[in-house]
């Protein structure tokens, strides 16, 4: 892997992490007005329609003629897995508070690295494995004020919530790795086009359109912005996955919750939406955890192992 594609891939993943970090803030502002299912449907539907128009004008839809039945099946799997990721995470929030839920989801980096090894023969050096261990330690340090599971009814509820989060992680990683597998067949834009439209169609029968009537112009702006951010985040992520090993991508994703907390704090201190947002409880251990996470993420980018397979996924 040459250095130039790797740098470009890193820029794309950084952009995706920024969009995903800001996304929960926008969703938090609308969750009291629009339920998660309807909001997900809108985000998928709007992103899918935008991509459909763009690809139709650019003549990019012609490549679908070359897709085989088996590859259509892989596309469907990627779409269903991404939907399952969204829904299982939502259900898990009935058993866990957002802090522990976000912490549990950070195992996605390990799942992604393991999937990269199984599907693409990618390997991590011992040094990088040590970085993942430091990353886990940093996460525990950063989220220590939120590691309170006493809000659940009992230990059984906590276990159910954690298991649902891990199911969500598994579904998300499966979708990401299947998308990468298809990168040599379709462009990332066309892959996302199918996934978004499929997700919107699956969710359509469960939607209640009456929830959209009370929205004012400010809420509509936030909802539309979240749909655009969804499109840009996954588009950048898909491009980055073409150029970087899954293990490196997984480490970068660990920065997402930190960006969410920082954005929330900035808005609260600026006096915006204080009735809907609360500043993060960052004690000294949390701040030290941020330093550990940043160092671990930066270090895991060093000297990545080349794939065991000489055949690389191409665009």
TrEMBL record:
Pfam families: EamA. Its main location: membrane. Keywords: Membrane, Transmembrane, Transmembrane helix. The keyword Transmembrane helix applies. The keyword Membrane applies. InterPro entries: AA-Vitamin_Transporters, EamA_dom, EmrE-like. The chain crosses the membrane at residues 7-27, 39-62, 74-97, 103-120, 127-146, 158-178, 190-213, 219-237, 249-272, 284-302. Residues 8-142, 160-270 form the EamA domain. It is a multi-pass membrane protein. It is found in: Membrane. Belongs to the EamA transporter family. This is DMT family transporter.
